[in-house]
Amino acid sequence: MHINVPTILGAVSMALLAMMSLIVGVLIGLYGKPSRRVNAIIMAFGTGALIQALSLELAYEGAERLMQHAELGGFASWMWVAVGFITGGSMYYLGNRMLERRGAALRHPAMAKLFLLNKKREETAAILTRLSKVELVRSLPPEEMEDILLCVQPLRVKRGEVVFHRGDKGDALYFIDEGKIDIFTGNSEASHGVAPLAQLGSGQSFGEMALLAGELRSASAVAAADSSLLKIDKEHFDELLDRSPRLRRAVEELNSQRLLQNVEATRGRMDADVWQKAAVANIHRLTKGEEESMMKTHVATGVPLAIFIGALLDGIPESVVIGSSFVSFESFRFTFLAAVFLSNLPEAIASAVGMKQAGFSQVRIFSLWGSLVLAGGMAAAFGNIVLADAAPTALTLVGAVAGGGILAMV
Q1: Which residue has the higher pLDDT, 5 or 140?
Q2: Does the pLDDT value for residue 362 go beyond 60?
Q3: CA distance 18 to 345
Q4: Residue 91 CB contacts under 8 Å (≥ 6 apart), including other chains
Q5: How far is CA 31 from CA 26, 161, 228, 239, 341, in A?
Q6: pLDDT in tens, 240-269
Q7: How far apart are CA 257 and CA 237, in angstroms?
Q8: Is the Cβ–Cβ distance between 295 and 105 less than 8 Å?
Q9: What are 189-244's pLDDT values in tens digits?
C-alpha cells in the first residue's frame, strides 16, 4: 500500500469541495427562502448529471478497465459491474429502510412526509378500531373516514356524570366506545330512581336527532358506568355533510327515523377488522399543522443519530469514488464532482428546513452536516489510500458497489 500524501490531500480537498454544498444548502435552508421551483430545477439538473457520471465514469470506465487490464471479455466485465451496482443498491436500500424506521427519513422531505404519514396511520389505527365497533360509522365507506377522523374527540365520563340535559342545545353526536349510557326523558336531576327509557352500550350512538334537526335535546344522557366516548361537534359534522354525499344520504335516512333499518341493512356487510384496515389504508393526507406537530413529537433522542447515519449512507459512497479516482488535478474529471455538489444542494436545503421545523437548533443542524463534510473527507482519504493502487477487479467492484448505492439514493 503506497501512501502519497499530496495525492491524498488532493483527494480530500476534492471531496470536501463536493460536500461543501451541504453547508451551503443548510445556510440557504435556514436563512433563505428558495422557491420549490428553483429547488426542483437544481435537483433535476444535479440528478441528471449524477446519473450521467455514474453511467460513464463508473460503469463504462469500470468495464473498460477490466477488459484492458484484467483481460476479461466484454460480457464478464459488464457482469462484474452489474453485480457491483446491484449489491451496492441493495445494501443502501436495506440500510436506509432500517434507519428510516428510527427517524432518519426526516433528512429527505419526500420520505419525511411518508414516514409521518405512516406514523399517523399507526396512531389513528387505535381510534379506527374503536370506531369500527359503531354500526352507524361502519355503514359509511372506509375511504371517507379520513375526514371524520379529523373531527373525532375522545371523551371520558364517570358513572353518574351527565353528558347532556334535556333542553340543551344539540351541539354534538356521541359514539360509545366502552361503557353504558342511560337515556331519560326527563331532566337528569329528576331521574333518580326512575327507569331509563333506554340503556345504550358499546358500539351505539346517541345525540344525533337534536343535532341533525337543529332542535333542543328531547332527553337526558347520563353515564350508567365509567364510559369512553367519541364525540363529533355539530360544526365539524356539518362540514362533513357538505363534503360527503354518502354521509348526507345516511344522515337523511337517520333523520327520517330509518336508522335501525339502515344499520340492520349494513350489519355484516363488512367485518369490523376488515373495515378498520380499509379505513387505515385510506389515510392519505397530512396537513401542515399535523406535519409540524408530528415532526416535533417524533424527534426523539435517537433520531438525530439515525439522521446522521442516514446522511453518511448518502454521502460516503460519493466520497469513496472521488478519493479512489483522484490521481492528480490535471487528470481528475470534475464532472462527477460537480454532479455530487449539485445533487447534495437541494437535499441539504430541504433537510435543514425540515429539521428546523422538527425542533433542531441551528447549532445542532450545522454540527450534523459539518460532521458529515469531515466524514466525507476521511472517506475520500480512505478510498485513495486503499483503492488507488488496487487490482483492476477490486477497484471496479468497489466503484460499482459505491455507484449502486449512489444510484439507489438518487
Answers
A1: 5
A2: yes
A3: 10
A4: 401, 404, 405
A5: 8, 53, 47, 39, 20
A6: 767 667 666 666 665 554 344 444 444 444
A7: 19
A8: no
A9: 545 667 788 888 887 888 877 776 677 888 889 999 999 888 888 877 777 767 66
All three cell numbers of 309? 447515519
134-283 sits in which CATH class?
A: mainly beta
Q: What burial class does residue 68 get, using C-beta atoms within 10 Å of its C-beta: 0-12 exposed, 13-18 middle, 19+ buried?
A: exposed
Question: Which residues is 181 bridged to in the sheet?
Answer: 200, 223
Quote the distance between the C-alpha of residue 54 and its chain's center. 29
Domain ranges for the chain, please list them: 5-103+302-409, 134-283
Helices (H), ranges, 5-155: 5-31, 36-53, 61-69, 74-100, 109-131, 135-138, 145-149
Please report the DSSP string for 276-308 in residue order.
HHHHHHT-----HHHHHHHHHHH--TTHHHHHH
Residue 341 in this model has a pLDDT that exceeds 80: yes
When comparing pLDDT for 147 and 158, which is higher? Answer: 158
Q: Lay out the sheet containing 220-223: strands in order across.
A: 162-164, 220-223, 181-184, 198-200
pLDDT at 386 over 60: yes
- d(CA 240, CA 290) in angstroms, rounded, equals 19
**Grid cell listed for 58:** 463508473
- Of 399, 410, 405, nearest to 81 by C-alpha is 399
Q: Cα separations (Å) of 256 from 68, 141, 203, 242, 407?
A: 85, 21, 21, 19, 61
Residue 207, φ and ψ in degrees, nearest 5: 90, 10
Q: Are strands 181-184 and 172-178 parallel, antiparallel or unpaired?
A: unpaired
Residue 269 has what pLDDT?
46
Amino acid residing at 88: G
Read off the pLDDT of each residue in 311-333 and give the average, rounded to a whole number: 81
- Asked if pLDDT for residue 11 goes beyond 60, the answer is yes
Confidence of residue 115 (pLDDT cuts 50, 70, 90): low
